[in-house]
Amino acid sequence: MIRFENVSKRYPGGREALRGVSFHLERGEMAFLTGPSGAGKSTLLKLVTLIEKPTRGTVIVNGQNTSRLSRRAIPRFRQRIGVVFQDHKLLYDRSVFDNVALPLVILGLGPREIERRVRAALDLVGLLGHERDAPITLSTGEQQRVGIARAVASRPDILVADEPTGNLDPELSLEIMRLFERFNEVGVTLLIATHDLDLIERFDKRRLRLVDGLIESDTAAPGRAA
After folding, report:
1. What CA–CA distance (Å, rounded) separates 7 from 22?
2. Which of 10, 95, 120, 179 has the most CB atoms around it within 10 Å of its CB?
3. Tens digits of per-residue pLDDT, 50-103?
């Protein structure tokens, strides 16, 4: 589902964020991406979502070599990937409904289908009934759940999250991670970047640790061969 083959990423100015990274995340797998600040976690996720392309090596996502995709093909490629950000990236001048509906509008779905999917996504994250609320009136945890609802409304094959619990207290962080786990249980492939090692100790999932752009360790989940 996600395969990196000897991938390096060098930014203008010479900084090499990733150096010869290789791993394979199988369809339906859930893994945590850990490591100190500046280790390359966000860069790796940007390569998965085609915000960036590798300087060297091969990135294959959902069976597609990202380096071979034309600019016109990128929007279609991204339709199958949901993204959750630490800072939500919500539109505060729009309602909760409109925020969750945005990717569906971009997909060109009809009003009835959009309403059905938005309500289903909000129900999954426990916010059904908040469609007309302004995001600013919600708690930080509720805003993060709106961001998750937006990411899953298009029914993606892959969900990536960049420090999704970074602004949350431990109880809310656990709630969000359990929500991700439920998505994984229905077949969504998840890659979650996080620095919260105490939190991920509570989940029996694979862990990839990045240090200085290199994979320092790849710890398999219990019951899975390394």
Report:
1. 6
2. 179
3. 999 999 999 999 999 999 999 899 988 998 999 998 787 899 999 999 999 999
Element containing residue 44 per DSSP (H, E): helix 41-48
Tokens encoding 189 = 């492939």
CA torsion, points 30, 36, 38, 43, in degrees to nearest 10?
A: 0
Burial class (CB in 10 A: 0-12, 13-18, 19+), 221: middle
Report domain extents, the chain: 1-80+157-226, 90-155
Q: Which amino acid is at 165?
A: T
Q: At what angle do helices 170-185 and 140-152 cross, to 10 degrees?
A: 20
Structure confidence at residue 222 (pLDDT):
52
CATH number for the domain whose boundaries are 1-80+157-226: 3.40.50.300
Determine if residue 152 is left, alpha or beta; phi over 0 gives left, psi from -120 to 50 gives alpha, anything else beta: alpha
- Residue owning tokens 């105490």: 198
Residues 48, 82: Cα–Cα separation, whole Å: 11
Return the DSSP state at 220: P
Residue 156 and residue 1 in contact, taking contact as beta carbons nearer than 8 Å: no
Distance CA 41, CA 17 (A): 9
